[in-house]
């Protein structure tokens, strides 16, 4: 060959272009030929390394999948590419293997060698380039719904700003919008109006609003954004969380993030937010008092808010002060007060609220004088203009307690949800309540004062009724007032300890560390009475041992998130300390607290390092409140501690200690006993958990003053259950007999949860004041109450009950036994009803004997009640005016939801004006929603799901006959009844209709389709198509279409000859076609189909699908296509014009070619020399020399007694019966698997099968006794095939 190359070079000459073009290719092919073995070895080596890399990565992917995480697209793309390279390598190996049985010519050898070299190089490049930034991430939970805004006014001065901002939000190009104006001008109010309008106009999928505040806490802001987006961060720091949030905001949803009260430049990138034009649909709206802040943040679209116009200010003030036209004496003064407020909405509202109860002329003139002459001192810019009206509101407070409470709220961090209970402890510790003898009275007083401050707009609503907030401007003014009165709010970041002498006269101090800071060794605060230290969880805080050396006058000390393991020893010098509050602290031991002889309130909440309440705490003779809630590691209370706390009024131990013991000899007992509670005569509040249910039988004599309680026995419940203040939760075995002290609590309880076989021992007629009631896991109870018992019918049965859940009561037949008279208000306040797994229940309430009022019922969940024939009679159903959600599942005998027991001839009507969600699942006997009604109205129904209700053909039937009568055309008539109105249906799921041939009745009004946004069709096996072309024209708002497990469907859309409109799904974003074995196309018309909004398409196990449509298919926004286990990213395709139609054609054609190839291999195997029983069908010869083959014998003749004389025909007859069944099975399994990811494994299996059978054939022809010996190898082949099938 070398000589030939030399001759070619000589003849052609090095200077000629022809020589250059010919020599190089020939040389390359020559190298391929000569290096065949080395190239194959290199391929095998790289294939092994790549296989190991794939296995390693797949294990990580499997681990992430088990943790319900979403795999990164780049990881999936790499795995897909790597497996494709493996398939190429396997194909080369197969061709080499086949060539060994024949002869590889020069061309074939050279081609295989070249292909092996290129594949090995590609494998190496792919393996070395494996570098993933993120392997997986957690999917988002359900997002938090924003809070709606309060009542607002349509002022002319605000309309232009509001419409301008809305215009920017509608413009996809604008990414940042700003609002600036002085504090209290109404920025927050207009932000809430804008977010509400944006939500109503559906401009964004998600809206987040965050209060930033003066001290920028990036961690808090991140968490608030994440909470509103339904995202939960794992443990980590700012930057890792920023990457997670950044990934969340890239999920193609339109998001509006509103930042309110921004005082300095906010670095959005540090939070994980990008405002680049290509960053999906994320828009930022920022509000600040400083225009310069918006300029620093590069906000170009800025709207400046000014004060109200004169007429607007006059209207707002008069409205808030409740001044009417007949109050002539006050009108002139009101005019001057309005001018003094300067048109500032916050001032107008606060002053008006302060004066609305003052109707005398002199009080208004006094107010006017105060507004004119108040001096705010050193406060600059905005604050002076707000000080006068807010100072007036403060001065108009009736008593000093309200003023002190107002100033006390300013000591908490900005935008903080202040716990009213904590305010109670502080004011009690400061001895602010004169003439109040117990904590409950103090608590009631604080709640009353809070209501006063809220009515004057000095405090705002918090997260719930137990919390309040303070507006930041109001807080600024309150801090100024407090500083004048010797109270101070300090931040370590701005505190100059060299001026500590100027702080020594302070009486209240709030320390809020914002960065790592070490305090001086000693602080001289001789007059300090209250110290609050609210630390951030990410700030390291160090406190010296002598920290409290010079604070001996301290009355109140509160720590939050201060991470030291022991309290400073100098705390024992605080002999005047009345309140000590530790929250989320790492303190392990609290023995030193026993030296605080005057301590009255000790609260340790979520201190999860405390394991023991030591004996030293028994010395706290003046202690009135002891709390160790959520101290999960607390397992020991030294005996005698509680009994020594003789003045104790409140004991709170929920979520911590539960190992109470019985009263025995002192030396044998290691823990506290319940009997020690008898030594607490002043106890008014008791919250305890008892692990041992046997203690529920022990009698103890508790204080009769206990009015609020939370008693939990032998169960597992979350710490926070409800806001009810009287709770009993019992898990009772069959042998438990409750003691009298528990029954005393039961008679007054508001929240009762019973579980276990012993629950039937509780007489529920004695707990008629209960608001929340649950009963579960009791197999003996047959009814809850019997009306034959002593029930006061003036009030009825459970008149106060709001929530009821009944679960796993296997013998319960009815809720009430006996009659309930009309007008008794039984169950009149019930709002939530859950019934789960009551197999013997036949009715909830019987009509007409049981008259219940369900006018307040909002949520109904009925699960697994197999003998329940209907839910309610029509007489009760008509009272469900507040019902919002109805869910019924797995009730085998239910025939109708509501029954017409009066049979009024179908002339009645029924409406569910507030029903938003209806779910009916697994109801095999259900035929109609309601018989005997003429019309049904669902004006607000938005979500509807009907699954496995095969007999439910129509929603309503105006006669008592079978509702299926007249509906024998094979169509589903759920939505064609003109007298059934579905006003707002957006999401619809239909499944389990195996007998219908048409999902949509031809009589369905066109308006039904217009509102649909999501449609899911499952397991409707007899339908051949889903829509007609005329119906498609009405699906203008459909965003998601999912079709699954419909065995006979051939196409999704059928063409109608008389329809000429251009077909289109203008809003469709997601299309899923799953497990549709006969689906041939999406639609068969020859007109262009447009899917302009489609972003994702998924096709799984649709083997007959060859194309989406015969004509062109337009999908300009398509991003990903999933076909079986392969995901295709459209931007990665070389042919950008290919689109969804081309992808489907190409992929399905490739699958068909693979299938045809396998079929050819399978057919050729029938004629090959397959002479062995692969699965042990043949077992050798019998005693007569006959070959045994499952009942069939082949008798030997004289000519074939020797194995060498057996003819091929005889051997083929022997194995033919085996191979037919085997090959048929193999072909069927291959056909099912070849459309997914198993093509290469199948091919290897067939080759191995062929190789094994060929060897077995030759061995059998030589000696039939070798049949048995080859069965082992055949079994190995079979095992490999089985493994492939299982995969």
From TrEMBL:
<keyword id="KW-0433">Leucine-rich repeat</keyword>
<dbReference type="InterPro" id="IPR055414">
    <property type="entry name" value="LRR_R13L4/SHOC2-like"/>
</dbReference>
<keyword id="KW-0067">ATP-binding</keyword>
<dbReference type="InterPro" id="IPR057135">
    <property type="entry name" value="At4g27190-like_LRR"/>
</dbReference>
<dbReference type="GO" id="GO:0005524">
    <property type="term" value="F:ATP binding"/>
</dbReference>
<comment type="similarity">
    <text>Belongs to the disease resistance NB-LRR family.</text>
</comment>
<dbReference type="InterPro" id="IPR042197">
    <property type="entry name" value="Apaf_helical"/>
</dbReference>
<feature type="domain" description="AAA+ ATPase">
    <location>
        <begin position="173"/>
        <end position="313"/>
    </location>
</feature>
<feature type="signal peptide">
    <location>
        <begin position="1"/>
        <end position="19"/>
    </location>
</feature>
<dbReference type="InterPro" id="IPR032675">
    <property type="entry name" value="LRR_dom_sf"/>
</dbReference>
<keyword id="KW-0732">Signal</keyword>
<keyword id="KW-0677">Repeat</keyword>
<feature type="region of interest" description="Disordered">
    <location>
        <begin position="1266"/>
        <end position="1287"/>
    </location>
</feature>
<dbReference type="InterPro" id="IPR050905">
    <property type="entry name" value="Plant_NBS-LRR"/>
</dbReference>
<dbReference type="GO" id="GO:0043531">
    <property type="term" value="F:ADP binding"/>
</dbReference>
<dbReference type="Pfam" id="PF23247">
    <property type="entry name" value="LRR_RPS2"/>
</dbReference>
<dbReference type="InterPro" id="IPR003593">
    <property type="entry name" value="AAA+_ATPase"/>
</dbReference>
<dbReference type="InterPro" id="IPR036388">
    <property type="entry name" value="WH-like_DNA-bd_sf"/>
</dbReference>
<dbReference type="InterPro" id="IPR002182">
    <property type="entry name" value="NB-ARC"/>
</dbReference>
<dbReference type="Pfam" id="PF00931">
    <property type="entry name" value="NB-ARC"/>
</dbReference>
<protein>
    <submittedName>
        <fullName>Disease resistance protein</fullName>
    </submittedName>
</protein>
<keyword id="KW-0611">Plant defense</keyword>
<dbReference type="Pfam" id="PF23598">
    <property type="entry name" value="LRR_14"/>
</dbReference>
<dbReference type="GO" id="GO:0006952">
    <property type="term" value="P:defense response"/>
</dbReference>
<dbReference type="InterPro" id="IPR027417">
    <property type="entry name" value="P-loop_NTPase"/>
</dbReference>
<keyword id="KW-0547">Nucleotide-binding</keyword>
<feature type="compositionally biased region" description="Polar residues">
    <location>
        <begin position="1266"/>
        <end position="1277"/>
    </location>
</feature>
